[in-house]
Amino acid sequence: MMNMLKSKMLKSYRVIVFDLDNTLYDENEYLFAAYADIGCYVARKIGGKAFEYETFLIHTFQKEGRYNLFDKFICNFCLTGIITKEELLNILRSNDKTLHVYENLKMLLSDLLLIEQHRVYILTNGNVLQQRNKIANLDIPDLLLNIRVIYADDYIPKPSPFCLNEIIRNEEINTKDIVFIGDSKID
């Protein structure tokens, strides 16, 4: 019943903008798959157990967040001069795991896109290459054909209202006609 109420409420807007990570799908699905790939890469390059590398990345991320995660990884396993942070970032940004959009959001997106008066956007912060990769791996390729994607880092990252103001201007709508759905205080 609650999903129906939310769906009805959203349909009153002409433009619906969604954040990507942890709004449309669980970002850990992407990150943990990348950490597994990093573990395999390091094990192939220097030896050791891929699972041990992966576990370190996951546990450190869960305890301390992503800040300096790869620096901590390199330091913990004495990889300075052997593996670079850039190598690890490239693996992170090129992960090709299929990402599963939350089932209730798949249905909602489908409903919203059926009504021609609605425009649906995804507005996401972060490294543009990585965010493009995530979008390409979402398990909604047919729906994505009708969703406009804006990479805030191409302009001015959130919390700047710049991208939302551009949507309002381009769609020729009032602020009462747009809603932004996200998962954080920045959103």
Question: Can you characterise this structure?
Answer:
- With 187 residues, the chain is an alpha/beta fold.
- It is built from nine helices and four strands; from the N terminus they run H-E-H-H-H-H-H-E-H-H-E-H-E.
- The two termini are 26 Å apart.
- The model has no long low-confidence stretch (mean pLDDT 92).
- Strands 3-2-1-4 form a four-stranded parallel β-sheet, sandwiched between helices.
Which key features would you list for this structure?
single chain; 187 residues; alpha/beta; four-stranded parallel sheet; 9 helices; 4 strands; elongated
Summarize the structure.
The chain is of the alpha/beta class and 187 residues long. It is 52% helix and 10% strand.
Q: Which runs of at least 5 residues are low in confidence (pLDDT < 50)?
A: none
Helix/strand/pairing class, anyone? alpha/beta
Kindly state the number of beta strands: 4
Largest sheet: 4 strands, parallel
The Cα radius of gyration reads 19 Å
Strand content: 5-15%
- Calculate the terminal CA-CA distance, rounded to whole Å: 26 Å
**Share of helix, binned:** 40-55%
Spatial strand arrangement across the major sheet: 3-2-1-4
